[in-house]
Amino acid sequence: MKWETALWMVACSLLASLPRGQLDTTCHAFVGQTVVLPCTTSPPGELALAKSMLYWQIGTKELVHFFQNGHDSLDGQDKKFHDRTSLFLDQMKYGNFSLKISNVQLGDDAEYSCIYRHTESHQTKKSTIKLNVSAAPRIEEPPSPSEQNQIPSGSSVDVPSLALLPLSFLLLVPLGLWHL
Known about the structure:
The chain is α+β, with helices and mostly antiparallel strands. It has helices spanning 3-17, 89-92, 145-148, 167-175; strands at 25-30, 35-37, 52-58, 62-68, 71-72, 85-87, 99-101, 110-118, 123-134. It is built from 4 helices and 9 strands; from the N terminus they run αββββββαβββαα. Strands 1-9-8-3-4-5 form a 6-stranded mixed beta sheet, with helices on one face. The longest helix has 15 residues, at 3-17.
């Protein structure tokens, strides 16, 4: 690891350990979904990614995604994010540093820091994004038409029985006085 990278990681840890400010935004996802954590800046022109560092982290110790000198650098990435994070590489030069997390897990529920630094100008930008993760909602399917018409055995469903019909009706039908 280059000394610049090590120094940058220490600087990011110091930035992350500063007293928390307000959240920039809050996102919500269900387990198994894909979520995009937004992080943008408005550069005066195209950014020189070869002279940039982007660090996504949780707290001061969990590396979620690291990008430096125009490439992903995921050697120190926390194992739980392995093969689940990506950046929008085609949009980064325009200031879009958003992070896509696939197959979201309950353990991904946290406050994420997006820290961007241009190495030549020493300009640094930090955003904090809260991700709330919920268990996938249970979707109950409506019963099929054939299941709707079935009466389970032993159930007390209102079914007309002869015992409930009026006595006059029971007498009239056998005598032939009632024509159906």
